[in-house]
Amino acid sequence: MTPEKPAIKKLYALSNEGRKFAFSLPLKNVVRVNGRDYSVELREDEKYGVHVLWKNRRYPVEIVRTKQNRYEILFNDISHTFTVETPVSMQRKKALGTAREKSTTLIVRAPMPGRIIDVLVREGAEVVRGEALVILEAMKMQNEIQSVVSGTVVRIGVRSGQNVMKDDILAEIKVR
Amino acid sequence: MKKITRILIANRGEIAVRIMRTARKMGIETVAVRTAVEPDAMYLSHADFIHEEDDELAEIPVFLDVEKLIAIALKTKCNAVHPGYGFLAENAYFAERCRDNKITFIGPSPDAIYKMGNKPVARQIAMKHKIPMAMGSTGSVANEDEAVRHAARIGYPVIIKAASGGGGRGMRIVRMESEMEKMFILASREAEKAFNDPSVFIEKYIENPKHIEFQILGDTHGNIIHLGERECSIQRKHQKLLEEAPSPALDEELRAQMGETAVRIARAVGYYSAGTVEFLLDSDRNFYFMEMNTRIQVEHPVTEMITGIDLIEQQIRIASGEELTLRQKDVKLAGWAIECRINAEDVQAGFAPAPGKIEKLSLPEGPGVRIDTGVRAGSSIVASYDSMIAKLIVTGRDRHEAIINMKQALDKVWIKGTKTTLPFFRMLMRHQAFQAGTFTTSFIEKDLDRYHFSSEYEETIAAWIATKLFTEENLSSGKPGISFDQGRELTPWLLRKRLTQF
Amino acid sequence: MEINGKYFRSFIEREEALKKQYSAERIKKQHSKGKLTAHERIALLFDDGTFEEIDAYVTPSDQGVEFGRMELAYGDGVVTGHGKIDGRLVFAFAQDFTIMGGSLGIVHARKIAKVQEMALKMGAPFIGINDSGGARIQEGIASLNGYGVIFNNIIQSSGIIPQISVIMGPAAGGAVYAPALTDWVFMTSNTSYMFVTGPNVVREVLNEEITSEELGGAEVHARKSGVANMIYDDEENTIIAVRKFLSYLPSNNLENPPVATYADETPGINPKLRDIVPDDPNKAYDVRDVINQIVDRNSFFETSELFAGSLVTGFGRLEGKTIGIVANQPKVLAGVLDIDSSVKGARFIRFCDAFNIPILTLEDVPGFLPGKDQEHSGIIRHGAKMLFAYAEATVPRITVILRKAYGGAYIVMNSKGMGGDFNYAWPSAEIAVMGPDGAVAILYRRELAEAKDPVALKKELVKKYREKVANPFIADEKGFIDEVIDPALTREKVLSAFSALSNKSVKVPSRKHGNMPL
After folding, report:
1. Which of B411, B422, B461 sits opposite A54 (nearest CB)?
2. Residue B233: left (phi > 0), alpha (psi -120 to 50), or beta?
3. Which CATH superfamily hosts domain C36-246?
4. DSSP secondary structure letter of residue B62
5. Would the ipTM clear 0.95, i.e. be above it?
6. Of C159, C174, C198, C320, which is the active-site residue?
């Protein structure tokens, strides 16, 4: 039995605020806004760097980060984050989303002994994955301790100026 | 007073460039200081002479080091110093040390700086001259009990402010007596941390005021005039983001009244040079004296644009002892000017500083557009200084036209390499309350649900870019072809090794 | 043979029975868990229409039928075969959870062993997609023996063909050692688990409540245990990544890695490299920014990204040719070497060496992580692994010192004495026995104690130490550095150095094997 590779006919870009943008493949240089198609072009040159040409105007573009199917794009000075999903992965998202409805608490611990230089978030603050929580100085270097999950800070375990040991609790985050 | 022939610019960035431009126009030489943090900064290329300062090991930036600056001025044979804004611009001791060394300090007298710099002293002077003020304590408040007594007298809400403070630090709003103890300690502690002085005072807190300031010019012969107001209510945590002149909230009558008051307080301290008197204006058109800034302001260009007066030139002339040729009746306000502070800040992350290297920079030009900047493509916005990239100043015949021109100018700004406050201004120009001119100082904190403008199509295009990248990386035939045969072609030398080794 | 002939009819009947076995209902059940079926995974993995399945019709052993329910299904819960990936021969198996939970019986094991042996004979890469409930209890010892055979095959092939495990479901008990023995482990978040003893046993023995995800999910293995090298959010992305990853690797240890077509677009001279490392030695930066400016555009594939972040490892391309990159990461714990990063680095270096992949080392290391925790857990033993791996590697080895290179950590990071072929340094490099602060404190202890203003004196001395000792020029003059280079020219230098080294051939003394400090 030689199964056929499923042809991908559509892709979805999901914004981190939950908006969904659908594009048919093969992807054309066209964007549809309010029912009208406009041509759009992604270019790069010496003078302007990477930019988009849209309705005879240039807009600055920066591809800040790409990781797997996650893209952070700076368009016209505003950053947008999308995950690009195929019909199959959309289906998986749905299947997993209904199966998994638990919210856990993540404990952020000091990765090494050092001194807390600054606490950057407050209890009750909403943080996103990768956001810096505290700055820990160790080995004369300032290390940003980042949240590995998105969620709400339920507890801050340290004050700035405080010395911490390895594995001391820095913060607790309720996973969103 | 003697003629100024060479000025040490005790500052950096756009204000250094700005001062040097006027000095050049006036035929005065300038000296700039090169620091280890910004060895290739743009301001250096505008100076006639550059002093090399090896400050790598210095405890404090050279621009904050009084004795070092005096030494540099003497060594480079400068007979005047311009402090710009920030750093030592409002440091009475620095002005005094300049005077001791026969160097002209381009600014007011040390006495005026001291009196206006110390808030309780300034309040007492203002009170003596019957300047309208928010009710409050006459001097510093010793403890929370005294604070509670004062608050009971003037009525809640009140605001606790640091005596030697500024820029919003050490300020606390107290809305009821039960909060006083906690807030008083917080404010006092913060004041001590920020200004090395824990003393605080108390004032009536005015809800949702407008921030209106008057530009003052005074000479050493006792002439003092005002150049109209600036509207600075668009601020976040007491940091101004956009200023305009004139203010949509003032009419001729109120302008004359406030201007006269501003001149009166300046006269009270024998003020000369350029200065700014700040007022709060409440919704009933009552105004209250807040403080006086004894320096050139970041936002001075908007006044220059509507009066046609070069304020830096006036500062230099006044410092050389010249008499003002302008009289109050000569000051005519024409048109409207708006200034946007384009900073390297991440608007989406609550205006967090976003230092970085400016890779591409293209700024609009043309009639009605003025750019004051201290950076160019390749410059770095360093974390140790402020995050300003450029001030974009745009004029129009009236406010409406200025806003339209600003909207267009903003779209012509091209900055790559760091996030900027541009999206905020794009939003602001489209915001109804801004267009109507009814905004107050709490506008950003209270009236905005988002700090940036992004139309629906922008997000759609960004989504399209993400999708395009995904297809190019994962689905397209455009990804690099892999040749396995090339990996199999080995030279005899390698082949022998591989075969015998295993 | 007639199309309606007797023989042909039974052939078609069998084919139909097989089709029926993979009913829509089973597929739907697998999909409802967010998972793809074994055949769907295989289809995604291989080039269109190239996969040839072997042993599709085998049936389970009939041992132990009397105990417990057992299906008599074709294929015995695993799909095996070969196909092409980017046009190259690859062998693979994919366990089928829809047939008896993908449990491993003797026939199932034999099928896997058969393709393993074929892969070794052909010198072709081997990929295993795991989604199995474990040993088939009904078959008892025969099933355990099956694992033994599979493990043995992996070990015999190790270092000869690249072996990749993809975990897309449970892998529990002894089964976890098959992936652990292969070169690389990919996992899919939320739907795959690996543990030796599951949550139920943990609950019974230790009275501790823990979920499968917390005990052995992809995130845990990628961050904490280091068992999973790469994790992805969904199965499609996982398989896309496996395909991409394979394009960096040769088919076997006699070949060189494949070469990607290279459209000359990455500049040889790149001034951006001058700006990444901050002048302030205490400021952090992301060493991946340096890597991305050196290798062909978008060619860096980071491995074990989430584990031991203070050392970055991964593959990249230089004019289409694969290189392995080992780089200290100042952004994480100042880039120190600790137990985890030493082990991560050592294993990566050994893989590169086994498969003829040249190694580029980017060095900015303040030293080994101090402390009781590290010393007692054996940083000496584990740090030694990294030394061993470097010195043992006969592939071309180049080091570029970006900034700090102090003490023992300097030696470890492919120093000249350890056999580095070309060692370069940027002008910002600080090469010394220890950092300025430590050195000054020891050398001028008395002077500092007696000084009126010890802080100022220390600053002065530190500055002097940087100028006089901790710089790349002394090392250059003494020959421990081959050249101090302009950062902007790094790509060009590294390219020409690797090209000069492409014929490197080292005679290794003959021995059974060295005794690496494991």
Report:
1. B461
2. alpha
3. 2-enoyl-CoA Hydratase; Chain A, domain 1 (3.90.226.10)
4. G
5. no
6. C174
